[in-house]
Amino acid sequence: MKHDDHSKAYAALAGVLAGLSLAGCGESTSDASTGNASGADGARIAALERRIEELERRKTHLEDIAAIKRLQRAYGYYVDHAMWDEVADLFAENGSIEIGLDGVYIGKERVREYLYALGNGRSGLAEGELNEHMQLMPVVTVAPDGKTAKARWRGLIMTGRLGEGAYWGEGPYENEYVKEDGVWKISKLHWFQSFVVPYEGGWAKNEDANGAKYVSDRLPPDAPPTVEYDTWPATYLPPFHFPNPVTGE
User: Fold this and answer.
1) pLDDT: is 47 or 173 the higher one?
2) Beta-bridge partners for 180
3) Are 225 and 124 in contact (CB under 8 A)?
4) Strand partners, 119
5) Other CB atoms within 10 Å distance of the CB of residue 206
6) How far is it, in rounded angstroms, from Cα 155 to Cα 175?
7) Residue 5: its pLDDT value, please?
8) What is the Cα–Cα distance from 244 to 249, expressed in whole angstroms?
9) What pLDDT digit, counting tens, does each position of 115-132 carry?
10) pLDDT bracket for residue 55 (50, 70, 90)
11) Overall pTM surpassing 0.85 (yes/no)
12) How many whole angstroms separate alpha carbon 233 and alpha carbon 99?
C-alpha cells in the first residue's frame, strides 16, 4: 500500500470511529437489547482503534523509508558537485565514513576532513571536472523501534577532467542510519569498490586503477578497513544486511 493510500485509509477509519463514538454517546442503556448493541459497538470501536494504530505504524515506517532515500540521494547530488560541507552535514555527530580501503574516519568533523582531502583541500568542481556518483537500487530496512536503519545501495560513478582522463567506477554501499530528534542522519557510510577503471577500454581491458585507496597515505584513518578485499579483476560480494525477501534466508 502506498503512503497516500495509508493516509486515506487512516482518515476513513478515523471518521468511522468518530461517528461510532458520537452515536454511542447518544444511546440509552436502559434495557438489555440496547446494552448488547452498545457492547457490539464497543468491540467494533476497539477493533477500529487497533487498525488505526497499525496504519499509523505503517505510515511512519513508509515515511522513514522515504526520508532515508531522500537523505542518501542528497548525499549523491552533493558529492557530484564536491559540496563537502553539505555532505558532512548529513552525518550524525559520531558518524563514520569508509570509502574503498582507505580505512574508517570517525566523527562528523573527521568525515569533513576526509572529504576535503578527496577534493585536494578545496570544495566545488574545477573547470572541466566531472564527479558523478549515482545512488541506485536502494533496499532499506528500518529497525522495529524506528530509531535506526540499514540500507544497501549501488554506486555508479563517472569521474574525470577534460584533457586529462576519465574513469568508470562501481560498487555497493552497506550503510547505517540513525533518527535523531525526528531527523534521519547517516551513522555509517561504507562503499565497497568493485572497480575504478579508465574510460578508454573500461573494465574489459583495464584492471582496477587505484586498489581502492585514495587519501589514507596522507590522511591516516582512525581505524583500519573493516574488511580487506581485492578489487577488479577479483570480485568480492559484501554480505547483505537483509534476508532474502522470498525465502527469509
Assistant:
1) 173
2) 183
3) no
4) none
5) 18
6) 12
7) 56
8) 5
9) 999 999 999 999 999 999
10) confident
11) no
12) 19
Sole residue written with cell 525526528: 182
CA 110, 112, 118, 122 dihedral sign is negative
Query: CA quadruple 225, 208, 203, 82: dihedral positive or negative?
Result: positive
Check: CB of residue 231 under 8 Å from CB of residue 102: no
Pair 174, 98: CB distance under 8 Å: no
Q: Please state, in angstroms and as integers, the Cα–Cα distance from residue 198 to each residue in 209, 234, 235, following that order.
A: 7, 17, 18
Model confidence pLDDT, tens digit, residues 232-241:
999 999 999 9
Residue 18: its H or E element = helix 3-26
Assigned C-alpha cell, 232: 577488479
Single-letter code of the amino acid located at 207 = E
- Residue type at 178 in one-letter notation: V
When pLDDT is averaged across residues 157-164 and rounded to a whole number, the result is 97
Q: Identify the three-state secondary structure at position 156.
A: strand
Tally the C-alpha atoms within 13 A of residue 33's C-alpha that lie toward its C-beta. 0
Bridge pairing between strands 105-106 and 195-198: unpaired
